[in-house]
Amino acid sequence: MVQESLQLLTDLNDIHDAFSIWRNAMEQHGERLASVWWLPTGKVYFRKSGNDNKLGLDPRGDHWTVELNEPEQGTENPLSGVARDSAGQRYLLRQGTLHKNAQSARIESSDFEERTGLRPAAVTIEGKPAKRAWFIVTALDCPAEEICQNTAAFVLRCGLARNPDAAATAKQDDERLVELFGPPEKGGKIVGQPAVSRKERWRIHGEVWQKLKGLFEADGRELVKPLHAYGYEVDGVVEAEAGKLLLEIKTGVAAADVYEGIGQLTLYPRLLPRLSGHRRILLLPGSPSIPLVAAVRECGVELHCYSFQRDGEKVEVCFSPQFLKLCDLGLE
Fold first, then answer.
1. Collapsing DSSP states into helix, strand and coil, what is residue 324?
2. Angle, vertex CA 150, rays to CA 11 and CA 31, nearest 5
3. Which of 70, 84, 175, 313 is deepest in the core (most CB within 10 A)?
4. Strands ordered across the beta sheet of 243-249
5. What whole-number distance in Å separates Cα of residue 207 and Cα of residue 218?
6. Domains of the chain (ranges, CATH numbers)
7. Rounded to two decimals, what is the model's pTM?
8. What average pLDDT score do residues 102-118 get?
9. How far is CA 45 from the centre of its chain?
10. CA 205 to CA 203: how far, in whole Å?
11. Following DSSP, what letter does each residue of 114-142 receive, concatenated?
12. Can you tell me the mean pLDDT for 287-296?
């Protein structure tokens, strides 16, 4: 999530350039149907007409959930806008106000915030705090697929704002997710690190794996990476007094990281029968919450943690004492 203050753009050329990035991404990943576009990434529909863009969940295109229209003036009057952070990164923004339509009465920003669980960004315009509440739809200086995913997620949140009953249920779900995973952070975070890119995740994953491999080699054991004929590769298998351990390393602590890790640990023993009966271990970059540990354990997976720190070229990876004990490794 963006924490620093964003500057709302007022130059129409800058705004047009930013909106062009967003439209191109939507067209690139959207599929043209009879009268609307379908975005498979998030299962939402949209329609373009000049600078106007209507988005929603109705495949007929009769009832739209939210509009993301390119502003024709550089003020706070339009409901959509573009902002830039201190690093020059651009963001598509939308006010929380939703006009009355067949789905709901008019939604004000206060209701939008409560029902969606989204929080307004800190926005300034011409050096002064914005008078209206602005919400981030998506970053724009990122891959097109990510732009579409974020946009679809925002449309779904707008759908909750228009449906109080669904919003109440979603709020209960969110409370449970916060209990399990802690406050949501887009893409998860490495301890002491900002949100990381896919490339950086691969680097971190490699550093953690190499550190673990070195610990086992120093103990006279080998960290094996079984490979399926079709290319499915396990992070590691090692023998310990507690039995054979099947290891999966994740570089984020978001719900999606845990879902993926559990899925892989469930699937691999079925793809590679020789892994059946192994204790399944999911390594996360941070200490899991007690409710999350319990919930994952019910899936037959054990959660353990590591920490990752980088100071220039120096990298430090440390594993929890509980994990090291499980692996019959001395404390670092």
1. helix
2. 95
3. 70
4. 236-240, 243-249, 279-284, 301-311, 314-319
5. 17
6. 6-181 (no CATH), 198-326 (3.40.1350.10)
7. 0.57
8. 88
9. 21
10. 5
11. HHH----B-EEETTEE-SS-EEEEEESSS
12. 76
